[in-house]
TrEMBL record:
SUPFAM superfamilies: PRTase-like (SSF53271). GO terms for biological process: adenine salvage; AMP salvage; purine ribonucleoside salvage. This is Adenine phosphoribosyltransferase. Its EC number is 2.4.2.7. GO terms for molecular function: adenine binding; adenine phosphoribosyltransferase activity; AMP binding. It comes from Lawsonella clevelandensis. One of its GO terms (cellular component) is cytoplasm. Homodimer. It catalyses: AMP + diphosphate = 5-phospho-alpha-D-ribose 1-diphosphate + adenine. It holds the Pfam family Pribosyltran.
């Protein structure tokens, strides 16, 4: 019997203590994404979970890689949810808290009409859920309809999925 996708991911995560600050145990998924078999398995799994959608949204920055791969498999568009200050005005903007600070997400408020579009959000790691919740709020603010959220790794102790209580949340593996 072969090793499961979840186990292969677990075996390739690089854990870094006290990064980006003291007390945070950072899960670096760079080695996971660099392995073509694991990467392709992640894309296929998330594509299956996405169902019928119009757009795959990815969170800055590793979520961009994931969203592009899933969007190709789904034959739909991709939406980059950017960190604040990376786009010219006007923008839709949502502030949120992280486990180690404050941040914001933005998308263009002109030239992009997602009104009524079914949007599936993907990212690499779900921790406290602050970024995930901000992504949901941002898309809804712009008129989109979030259909679900998927992540490679969910840090279950931080209970991030509770911030997306009314949304299907999928994770390939947990820690």
């Amino acid at each position: 019997m072969g090793t499961t996708l979840a186990q292969r991911i677990q075996d390739n995560i690089r854990w870094v203590a006290d990064f980006p600050e003291e007390g945070v145990h950072f899960a670096d998924l760079t080695p996971v994404l660099a392995d073509p078999q694991i990467f392709n398995g992640i894309m296929r799994q998330m594509s299956d979970w996405a169902g019928e959608v119009d757009i795959i949204a990815g969170l800055d920055a590793r979520g961009f890689l994931i969203s592009a791969g899933v969007a190709v498999l789904k034959d739909v568009g991709v939406l980059a949810l950017r960190k604040a200050g990376k786009l010219p005005s006007p923008v839709h903007h949502v502030d949120y808290g992280l486990e180690y600070g404050e941040a914001a997400l933005e998308i263009p408020a002109e030239g992009l009409d997602i009104t009524g579009k079914r949007i599936f959000i993907v990212d690499d790691v779900m921790a406290t859920g602050g970024t995930s919740q901000a992504a949901l709020e941002l898309i809804e603010q712009a008129g989109g309809v979030v259909t679900g959220f998927a992540t490679i790794l969910e840090l279950t102790e931080l209970n991030g999925r509770s911030k997306l209580a009314d949304l299907p949340v999928f994770s390939i593996t947990t820690a």
